[in-house]
Amino acid sequence: MSTSCSVKMRRRGAELELAILEAAWAELVESGYARLTMENVASRTGTSRPVLARRWDSKYSLAIAALRHQREKYPLQVTECGDLRTELLDFLERACGRASLITVFFSLLTNEYSQDPASSPQALRDTLIKGEDNALSSILQRAVERGEIDAQKLVPEVKTLLSDLFRHHAIMTLSAPPSTLRETWVDTIFLPLVRNT
């Protein structure tokens, strides 16, 4: 005679790490960085705080890992199609998937900076985007090579303008910019600045 018993399988390794990162992200989105605790993440994951502490030494390092994990879900690399406008709009569309990351990043930045004035926004930014190719620079370089835009006009402030506008909108409205606004940025602001004259 066989008896069936339901045994709850314990997650381990990559599966457990993924569950922890997803739980940490949910906590960050729902409660913000200030209220993030290792205990809440452990509880949400069905594990213990020591399990988290073996992988991440602080809630800061866990938050950074959760942000990086979410960032990887929304790659910004755009396939070359031979038209700068199309590629820029594709880039901004892809960036919309990351809008919530920007608001969480901003929460993390302001909280960390208030706790430790020696920490810098640039250091946090570098930690978060370490190793990521700059997709927008690749798009612009291809456009220069195709002769669509003037390389001399791509001063640093212009090169980052679309990303800066996107971040500003995400931080100020806590949302991704609508497609009509993205088109206005590209057609009315950015392209006139960089086109060959």
Automatic annotation (TrEMBL):
<dbReference type="Pfam" id="PF00440">
    <property type="entry name" value="TetR_N"/>
</dbReference>
<keyword id="KW-0238">DNA-binding</keyword>
<feature type="domain" description="HTH tetR-type">
    <location>
        <begin position="14"/>
        <end position="74"/>
    </location>
</feature>
<dbReference type="InterPro" id="IPR011075">
    <property type="entry name" value="TetR_C"/>
</dbReference>
<dbReference type="GO" id="GO:0000976">
    <property type="term" value="F:transcription cis-regulatory region binding"/>
</dbReference>
<dbReference type="InterPro" id="IPR009057">
    <property type="entry name" value="Homeodomain-like_sf"/>
</dbReference>
<keyword id="KW-0804">Transcription</keyword>
<dbReference type="Pfam" id="PF16859">
    <property type="entry name" value="TetR_C_11"/>
</dbReference>
<dbReference type="InterPro" id="IPR050109">
    <property type="entry name" value="HTH-type_TetR-like_transc_reg"/>
</dbReference>
<protein>
    <submittedName>
        <fullName>Transcriptional regulator, TetR family</fullName>
    </submittedName>
</protein>
<dbReference type="InterPro" id="IPR036271">
    <property type="entry name" value="Tet_transcr_reg_TetR-rel_C_sf"/>
</dbReference>
<dbReference type="GO" id="GO:0003700">
    <property type="term" value="F:DNA-binding transcription factor activity"/>
</dbReference>
<dbReference type="InterPro" id="IPR001647">
    <property type="entry name" value="HTH_TetR"/>
</dbReference>
<keyword id="KW-0805">Transcription regulation</keyword>
<feature type="DNA-binding region" description="H-T-H motif">
    <location>
        <begin position="37"/>
        <end position="56"/>
    </location>
</feature>
